[in-house]
Request: fold
Amino acid sequence: MRCAIVHYHEIALKGRNREYFEERLVRNIQWMLKDLGVRRVENLRSRIRIVLPEGIPDQTIIDRLTRVFGIANFSLAHGLPLDLAHPDLGALSQAVIESLRSESFSTFRVSAKRADKRLTLTSMDVARDVGAAVCEATGKKVSLKDPDLTVYLELLSKEAYYSIKKIQGPGGMPVGVSGKVACLISGGIDSPVAAYRMMKRGCRALFVHFSGRPLVSRASEEKVRELVQLLTAHQYTSKLYVIPFGEIQRDIVASAPAPYRVVLYRRVMIRIAQELAKQEHCWGLVTGDSLGQVASQTPENLTVIEEAAELPLLRPLIGMDKLEITDQAEQIGSFAISIEPDQDCCSLFTPPHPSTKTRLEDILRIEQMFDIDALVKQGLDKAELSQFTFPQ
Ligand code: ATP
Ligand code: MG
Reply:
């Protein structure tokens, strides 16, 4: 039987939390592999077994599972029955030896794990016996410290699994265990990374983008769609709201002193995103702000922008510098999309000297010149919803 054996980090998983985590992870894996015809995903004593139909290339499984948050590592394995009462390691050793025929290596080791402690043999016994059989059949040497190849054995209640491929998962927590958040996504480098980090902590992301339309082209929207599609690979389905923001910005520009524009746009964005967040049962808002990076991200401006939010405003990148964020963007594959040229709504009417130390009382006074509720309503009325799925 061909399968994948998935391990997750169990630290800090206690009682009911653990069950919830495991159920979610099983469900997420099912989602992720559904289109490949995978039907059996089961939680067996601290590991998840996925029965793989024949014909799916290893690489396809690896590509999929390395995107599922909550997986610490997994192996692509073969299983065979193992009788608990009379564990006969001959068949297992023979199967391992067969699977090594096509591999080139000079040294190896066997690493065994036993889920079922009722087995009369210990993991060490099994590793030693199978190792000895491999030595004898292949003439290769055991190296415990730095082997060319490792044979992984998993001993469950009624089966044994062997594998020579263990693959690192992305870690984190299964999407969904930490509720839902609304991510404000521009076409820039930071916001997709911010969304990714929250998803990795178990949040399902709803995406909200403000486009400069009708005053600029759709270029930023196209980038955002590509970014959302990329991120959807971690949560299988996504919703994106695009809000044409150009006219709202024009209204603000018409009456507000230039240095305050950016903070005013941001506060309106926060309010609009927040209404969508509430409709969609999100508990927080997420932005890609990083302290001191641009004029809108000084301590004073961050504080004044946050004041417009009633929901928690989460800024997972706040303490990261541009290099760290860029590295992560490259790792997750968003960097190449983010750096394509576009015209974001934020580049519209950007004042030459934005205020970097905005005071809340000044902003509250300026906002009285506007009918803020009407601006928010205008944004909400024009919001356009798109749905994404992975695989496409
Ligand atoms: P990014 O690289 O994410 O665009 P940035 O460094 O350019 O960030 P800002 O332009 O000040 O910084 O934006 C700060 C945050 O505000 C963004 O990370 C994003 O969460 C949100 N934001 C900015 N512009 C938009 C937009 N057009 N639509 C949605 N959210 C936006
Ligand atoms: Mg930006």
